[in-house]
Amino acid sequence: MFYPSDRVLVAIMNSKRDFDIARGEGWYRIPQRHAPESTTEAVVLAFYFTRVFGDEKWSVHYYAPVEGHELVRRSDLLPEQAGHPRADEPYYKLQIGRLMKRDEPIPSLRWRRITFIESTWDRFVAADEINDLYATGADGLYVTLKEDRLHPEREFLFKEGNAEYTVDLAIPCRQGTVCIATGDRPAPAGTLRDPDVDAVKRAVEALGGERPLD
């Protein structure tokens, strides 16, 4: 049905009403100003549930084929909310087909802030957890750390004072967080840059070991 390289966009679903729209009316909206690059190229749209979905929270259960897209005003999508502060802002309306449910959900092993995840069909099919969906320059180190029974987070938002960074990998530890960056990507002080596995393991040990999963 899908090819391995087909684009998959994982979007946040934090409203049961929006999920009812996706399931019953066959569309999902994304503000143009926040839309990731692959929005108009996505072949599959998947949904990451937040806490409002109870036992299904913090995981991906459902996905659907993308059948088209258009750029419209929010008020055109939701005319009953014509007085909304963003009523005149442009939104992508993704038209989707029938929702399908994975046999096994893709969970987040830790609670973390997630926005959009740009992935591919082969990664989506094979993923055991949310971090398996990402495709970045840190792929090799991520896989190796997992083989060593660590649980790195990918594209991790880290705050330092008034600054925010998104680091390639992060390992939450009992006494802090080991941040890892590849290349010249901006990162907080103390970040490991292009480290080998032994350097990462030493840093994790120095911070009291990896924090238990949620």
How is this structure best described in words?
- The strands form two sheets. Strands 1, 2, 3, 4, 5, 6 and 7 form a seven-stranded mixed beta sheet that branches. Strands 8-9-10-11 form a four-stranded mixed beta sheet.
- By secondary structure, it is of the alpha+beta class.
- It has helices at residues 16-24, 74-77, 121-126, 139-147, 197-206; strands at residues 7-13, 27-31, 44-49, 59-73, 90-96, 100-107, 117-120, 153-160, 163-173, 176-181, 192-193.
- The protein is globular.
- Helix content is 18%, strand content 37%.
Q: What is the CA–CA distance across the termini?
A: 35 Å
Number of helices: 5
* Strand and helix order: EHEEEHEEEHHEEEEH
Which stretches of 5+ consecutive residues score pLDDT under 50? none
Mean pLDDT: 94
- The count of strands amounts to 11
Q: Would you tell me the structural class of the helices and strands? A: alpha+beta
Report the sheet with the most strands, covering strand number, pairing sense and barrel closure. Answer: 7 strands, mixed
Q: Which strand-content bin applies to the residues? A: 35-45%
Radius of gyration: 19 Å
Helix coverage percent = 10-25%
Shape assignment: globular
